[in-house]
Design brief:
With 68 residues, the protein is of the alpha+beta class. The chain has one domain. It contains two helices and four strands, in the order βββααβ. It is globular and about 25 Å long.
Length: 68
């Protein structure tokens, strides 16, 4: 889903596999593995998506860049 953020364009979540997909405004896309549903919900609801991402997701979960 598209979100209102200066840094993050879209957030998607696969609850069955606990995978969080983040597309940044730069166009880069990443998949974060093992992210609990409550963290994703808090991320979507955060007033500052960029601040929440840096504090609660970045460097806390394994990730892969999605090419293409």
């Amino acid at each position: 889903m598209d979100v209102d953020s200066a840094a993050i364009q879209a957030i998607d979540y696969d609850e069955g596999q606990a995978k969080l997909f983040v597309r940044f405004t730069s166009g880069e896309r990443y998949m974060y593995v093992g992210v609990p549903g409550e963290v994703c919900r808090s991320f979507v609801e955060a007033a500052s998506k960029g601040r929440f991402f840096h504090a609660e997701i970045r460097d806390r979960y394994p990730y892969n860049r999605i090419e293409g």
